[in-house]
Amino acid sequence: MTTGGRPARTGVPLGPENAVDIEARLAAIRRPLAELAPSDGTYSNLRLFAQAHRYEYLPGPWPCVSGLAYDGAPVLIPLFDLATAPLAVLGELQGRDAEFYPVAESVLRSMDPPTIVSRALRDDADYLYRSAPFIDYVDAGLGPKRHALSRLLAATPVEVRPLDRADRGAAVAVLEGWCTDKQHGPDGADAAACRAALEDLRPGGALFGFLHVAGAIPIGFVLVEWLNPGVLAVRFAKGRSAYDGIFPHLFQDLARRFGSDLQWLNFEQDLGLANFRRTKQSYRPALLVAKHRVRVRAS
After folding, report:
1. Running along the chain, 299 residues long, what does each successive block of 10 average in pLDDT?
2. What is the 3-state secondary structure (H, E, C) of 244-295?
């Protein structure tokens, strides 16, 4: 049984035995949302952060994933269309303190306002960017990215290759260097989840990425996942600070590589961290995608 304000239901770990079912349900929720789909809602993302968020799968006729948000609040990730569930069911599912999350704006609008209480935290919002400006960084406000990229390429040619298990050691070296550059511990920030993602790379997997190499030195990598057709979630982007311009290079390569097949990049939320917020804002997002937390009012 879960405790601490979480729903009093028996949960099971996220594992291979429930992966297909969970991802199929999440995909059905994401699909109609197109580019506005929350970045959280894929099985691979939930599994990578299962320990950090204490995620558990709650099977049943109205299945959910329970866990804790970044701020420690108990949440329920519904694996069904929230707007179609009876209010009595939602009330029972949410328990004493849990909120349904992440709820998209369009789903919230389809619910009956007097029956729910909702809130959208700025720290939860995803940063959404059109991919075209990353091709050459000529749009207003992106000059610093263009100049940093030019300096990098003037100093050294950069090779980009698909990231596979053979390059795992090189990517881990970049990750460890990034932790040192940012003065994080070896498992600081999202390093533990990133290391797990690198370990789990496999052909045909949901996560895939690209390694950027200057000469014989790996200087950056990116791991991404398709949320919907034309929409990539940037799960992890790591680069060495000695190579100014590596991050614009990571994102430019994605935009150029996928061309018209890619319209949107989702950089996920900033967690309220000032450095994350400054960096994400510096790429000039097209919009912030609100992710609501919802509770049913007591009858």
Report:
1. 52 94 98 98 96 95 96 97 95 96 96 95 97 98 98 97 94 95 84 93 94 96 98 97 97 98 97 90 98 91
2. CCHHHHHHHHHHHHHHHHCCEEECCCCCCCHHHHHHHHHCCCCEEECCEEEE
Token duo for residue 130? 């059109």
C-beta separation of 111 from 251 below 8 A: no
Examine residue 233 and state whether it is found in any structural domain, yes or no: yes
Domain extent, residue 31, equals 16-121+291-296
Taken in order 211, 213, 217, 219, the sign of the CA dihedral is negative
Q: Tokens 């070296």 map to which residue? A: 173
Does 171 fall in a domain? yes
**Helical segments of the chain, H only:** 16-30, 43-48, 50-53, 87-94, 105-109, 133-136, 143-155, 168-181, 191-199, 246-258, 274-282
**Do 114 and 137 reside in the same domain of the chain?**
no
* CATH classification at residue 20: 3.40.630
123 vs 190: CA distance, rounded Å: 16
Domain count of the chain?
Answer: 2
**Residue entry with tokens 């209480």:** 117
Residues 144 and 258 in one domain: yes
Say what the pTM is.
Answer: 0.94
Q: Which long-range contacts (CB under 8 A, 24 or more apart) does 150-153 make?
A: 150/245, 151/244, 151/245, 152/243, 152/244, 152/245, 152/246, 152/248, 152/249, 153/245, 153/249
CB 290 within 8 A of CB 123: no
What is d(CA 67, CA 219) in angstroms, rounded to the nearest whole number? 35
